[in-house]
Amino acid sequence: TIFRQPSNRKLYLGSNTLFIAELIQSCPFSATGTHYTMTNGGSINSSTHLLDLLDEPIPGVGTYDDFHTIDWVREKCKDRERHRRINSKKKESAWEMTKSLYDAWSGWLVVTLTGLASGALAGLIDIAADWMTDLKEGICLSALWFNHEQCCWGSNETTFEERDKCPQWKTWAELIIGQAEGPGSYIMNYIMYIFWALSFAFLAVSLVKVFAPYACGSGIPEIKTILSGFIIRGYLGKWTLMIKTITLVLAVASGLSLGKEGPLVHVACCCGNIFSYLFPKYSTNEAKKREVLSAASAAGVSVAFGAPIGGVLFSLEEVSYYFPLKTLWRSFFAALVAAFVLRSINPFGNSRLVLFYVEYHTPWYLFELLPFILLGVFGGLWGAFFIRANIAWCRRRKSTKFGKYPVLEVIIVAAITAVIAFPNPYTRLNTSELIKELFTDCGPLESSSLCDYRNDMNASKIVDDIPDRPAGTGVYSAIWQLCLALIFKIIMTVFTFGIKVPSGLFIPSMAIGAIAGRIVGIAVEQLAYYHHDWFIFKEWCEVGADCITPGLYAMVGAAACLGGVTRMTVSLVVIVFELTGGLEYIVPLMAAVMTSKWVGDAFGREGIYEAHIRLNGYPFLDAKEEFTHTTLAADVMRPRRSDPPLAVLTQDNMTVEDIENLINETSYNGFPVIMSKESQRLVGFALRRDLTIAIESARKKQEGIVGSSRVCFAQHTPSLPAESPRPLKLRSILDMSPFTVTDHTPMEIVVDIFRKLGLRQCLVTHNGIVLGIITKKNILEHLEQLKQHVEPLAPPWHYNKKRYPPSYGPDGKPRPRLNNVQLKPIAEEREETEEEVHLLNSTTL
User: Which intervals hold domain CBS (predicted)?
Assistant: First the structure.
């Protein structure tokens, strides 16, 4: 367990580390009614109301600035105190009981509204994207709002071989030059395809640049950072939601190598953030709001892939930082509601939630595990290559003039994509339709060139399970086109992900894997047909048997490539399982996904989202990383030896003007409060924003508060001369029990505390005297520094020894510390005496 001992303010860790929800029953921040006993250096013993000494709470205290990290512990304590207050009043009247019920059900109401909005917007995006994608090729004259497939549904003049041609659908060549076939028709359709692609891309990037810059990209790296406690104002706002919805349709319709599934998570989180402001329980508490955002991210994946359970697991495995059990239930409910709404809309007309839903009826055989694992190896290699190439390109974009012209970049990428994609029928297709065609098994009603096999003339009837047959010319032609499409998709996806339009990575990665998988599947199928007497095929692949399913290989390859890029495992397998609707293929999927993760981790443990978080410099402590170094808290804390002394406040001998000068001269987010310049014993911690708001509020509402007024953080105001101005009491904004560690605490423990409790800062003390402070930013800088400059100084066996000798020798002085790891350049060893821990001299304050 974790507990804090107020007498010396040290943090103790037992064998089990509790999370935020099971933290301390007595919170340092309360609104009303909380008492606790504090012993400060053995001199003061008092029972204090934490928000006393003020007539009313100060508006704005406890809130956060933009691009700051929330204090999870304080937010959790605020919510617990609010819950206590509601429970204590609910028996007073029927109105209070109604308010209590409303508060209890507000969590379910907000996730219900989020699910409804996410499903409705996903259906709207799907319908609009399909219509605008087909608009690049032609238009339906009988009903302009119909896409190509819908236009020909009611036609009686379509044939089985040319089911996509009907009199109602006109290509642009037919409308402009009156020709349906020939070179002139091909060139005109080519020009119109490029024109519409550039128009959609230009409109999308212009809307993003002018109205909502946060609407670009996937959004998942930023959502992961926000869920970890970071504040990014406007990223989940109404303007971002509206522009992201519109530009997502335009970006998908432009034919760029991107998908809409990742941005749908951002759209759903925008809905959750907006609806959370309707309920005070969530609008006033940043930690509670992140529970809603976790449920919203589950709803986003649910409508993106038609996988409610996969969405819940995605939120748990990939994006959420704090995921209590009640959030699991609400995430499941939000995903269920969103999937139900999307199913009711039925955007694809196939009674399914996604376009590429497939069902296979042929079992897989044991020898197929080898090609499945090879596809996993390919997925891991693709993921490692993509992450390094994309990050290198994004870093170059940030450091060169090219990044200053986002509109030009989008136009260039869209033009190259359209020019190269049109001649190849597989790259001309919408990426979701391409995945559908690659996933689909060849049946008697399929007319795709991928199913152009030489038929057995002796077959007397049409059956569902068609035996393996020799490939025809159409299949070989399709394989060459798929190889070119694979190269094209790999190159263009590297340059497309990260441009200033909404761009998801799920669908392009799945398309690359599906292309590779289909090629491998056809190769194995033909190998089994021509060499069915080989010992690996002899038992299962007899002549005339339906042995190999190439579509299954495409599905496994898609999962492997997506896993290689994102390093998802359990949630990815469940998502693909829900796409196919069969439990029989869980083992191939698990084998491929785990292989891709192992291969990818061999080149780097970061997924694409963690890599972009690090590239953008977001303060995100990844729980998946292990801290294996032997540095101590004293090595990371600020100030360093060459830095100015630590800026602190004293509890009762500073004036308002002194504090305002300190705030203006520094940029720190908070200041330790000590008893006096002589003792320097820790009293508490005051945040910069709370100090500023409290002083401004006191000047407006309290008479007699001037620059020379004494500021008092103590319980009792010291005796002042009669002519002195009125003192300002700020004990209410003081954190009386900040988290502290000693200077000899191993950094692996400090990092674990920051990860588990979501701390903003931690004070470093020595015998109760404040030495410095460690912030989340300091830890991230230290981790990055260790990754780049660490050199081992001891043999491997030395690491198994006890690494932390006693801090003090027989004479009571600190021992010199010997590290197994050092940073370049070599820092001089620390050997402090009792006198050196006094950081402030008499002239500091």
Answer: 637-701, 734-793
Residue 653: exposed, middle, or buried by beta-carbon count in 10 A (0-12, 13-18, 19+)?
middle
* Closest by CA position to 298, among listed 348, 256, 337: 337
> Which range is least confidently modeled, 7-16, 600-609, 681-690?
7-16
DSSP state letter for 644: P
| Average pLDDT of every residue of the chain | 81
Give per-residue burial for 808-825: e unless 16+ CB within 10 Å, then b: eeeeeebeebebebbbee
Classify 768 in phi/psi space as left (phi over 0), alpha (psi -120 to 50) or beta: left
Q: Taking phi first (over 0 means left), then psi (-120 to 50 degrees means alpha), and beta for anything else, what does residue 255 get?
A: left
Reply yes or no on whether the pLDDT at 18 is more than 50.
no
Q: Which of 544, 585, 543 is nearest to 363 (CA)?
A: 585
Helix (H) or strand (E) holding 239: helix 238-253
- Who's near 408: CB < 8 A, 6+ residues apart? none
In angstroms, the Cα distances linking 126 to 171, 262, 343, 430, 749 are 22, 14, 12, 12, 48
Residue 798, φ and ψ in degrees, nearest 5: -70, -25
pTM: 0.82
Residue of 621, 638, 627, 632 whose CA lies nearest to 774:
638
Bridge partners of residue 37, in order along the sequence: 47
Hunting for tokens 């930023």 — which residue is that?
222
Measured between alpha carbons, how far is 265 from 543 in angstroms, rounded to an integer? 48
- pLDDT tens, residue by residue, 467-513: 667 777 888 899 999 999 999 999 999 999 999 999 999 999 999 99
Position of tokens 């996806």?
A: 493
On the CB side of 682, CA atoms within 13 Å amount to 32
For residue 825, cis peptide bond before it (omega within 30 degrees of 0): yes
Determine what percent of the chain falls in helix, strand and coil, rounding each to the nearest 5.
Answer: 55, 10, 35
- Amino acid in position 541: C
Tens digit of each residue's pLDDT (9 = 90 or more) over 327-377: 999 999 999 999 999 989 988 777 777 777 777 777 888 888 999 999 999
Peptide bond into 639 cis (omega under 30): yes
Residue 673's beta-bridge partner residues?
Answer: 649, 684
- Cα–Cα distances in angstroms (integers) from residue 307 to residues 192, 272, 352, in the given order: 36, 19, 11
Do residues 411 and 198 make contact, with C-beta atoms less than 8 angstroms apart? yes
> What pLDDT sits at residue 501?
94
Reported confidence tier of residue 22, pLDDT bands at 50, 70, 90: very low
Contact of 501 with 441, CB cutoff 8 Å: no
Distance separating alpha carbons of residues 696 and 698, to the nearest angstrom: 5
The tokens for 781 are 């800088």
- Say how far apart CA 212 and CA 195 lie, in whole Å: 25
Per-residue confidence (pLDDT) for residue 158, from 0 to 100: 63
- 170: how many CB neighbours lie within 10 A of its CB? 17
Closest to 616 (Cα-Cα) out of 291, 234, 201, 223: 223
Query: Is the CB of residue 110 less than 8 Å from the CB of residue 278?
Result: yes
Other Cβ atoms less than 10 A from the Cβ of 752: the count is 16
| 787: nearest Cα among 598, 565, 634, 631 | 631
| Block residue for tokens 């402001």 | 277
